[in-house]
Every structure is written in C-alpha cells, then in structure tokens.
Amino acid sequence: MLNCPYCNISNDNRHEVIMSNESCTYTLLKEQEIKGAGIIVPKEHRETVFDLTQDEWNETFQLLQEVKLYLDQNYKPDGYNVGWNCGHVGGQHVFHSHLHVIPRYADESMAGKGIRYLFKKNQKVD
C-alpha cells in the first residue's frame, strides 16, 4: 500500500529484521524504549489483526514462538506483554497490522503493570 511504513519494513533503517517466515517478519527498533521490544508484521498489507488470513494467523503464531525463544536466550526477560492495537481509538498509529512483543524486566519502573494498568489505576480496590 502506498506510503505504508510497514509494507516494506525491511527497508526501514529504524528497524532491524531479526527473523521472518513466509507470511510475516519480526523486527526490533534500533532505538528501543524497552530492550528487546519488537513487532511481528504481516508481509501483505492488512489493516488490523481481524484482516489476517488463517495462514497469516498461523504463521504469526509460529513466528511468535520463535521470537520468544530468541528473546529468552538473548534478553532473558522476566515477563512479557504481547498485543495488538486496532483502530485509532484502540491506539493504532500505523494502519498495517502489527503484533507488539514487549519483554518485561523485574528492575524496570513499570514492573508488574500490565496492559490494562492505566484502566485499573483509577479504580478503588476494596
């Protein structure tokens, strides 16, 4: 798709391609906020996860398992956040489907805060 930064992510010098399969690619940003944080991107333009074909879904899952092994061996995280943002209101900023794989570490300031932390922090706990 014209002007989509993820349709040719391997040509983007801000990303380092770590591995790929027939349907998708896993990349790391060269400048990372959390070490080892990356994305799995389908090679074909799909706006959201809901637009993936069954084969792309299966290949994404297969690559996710390989990514976890890679991260466990090279970064040794204490946990993970894995997720999709879908649509503008859902927090999606690049409208090419991408699965965030974010290693988490016990010594980081947000350790123990999951993806719903912002929703839960304002709730009163009895």
What features would you highlight for this structure?
single chain; 126 residues; alpha+beta; HIT family, subunit A; 5-stranded antiparallel sheet
User: What is the CATH H-level superfamily?
Assistant: HIT-like
Which percent bin holds the helix content?
10-25%
Count of β-strands: 5
The number of helical runs is: 2
Instruction: Give the CA-based shape.
Output: globular
The chain-level mean pLDDT equals 91
Q: Mind telling me the CATH class?
A: Alpha Beta
Percent strand: 15-25%
Largest sheet: 5 strands, antiparallel
Instruction: Briefly note the CATH topology name.
Output: HIT family, subunit A
Given as residue ranges, the uncertain stretches (5+ residues, pLDDT < 50) are none
CATH architecture: 2-Layer Sandwich
Q: Termini distance?
A: 50 Å
Keywords: Methyltransferase, Transferase
InterPro entries: Histidine_triad_CS, Histidine_triad_HIT, HIT-like, HIT-like_sf
Protein name: HIT family protein
Domain HIT: 5-111
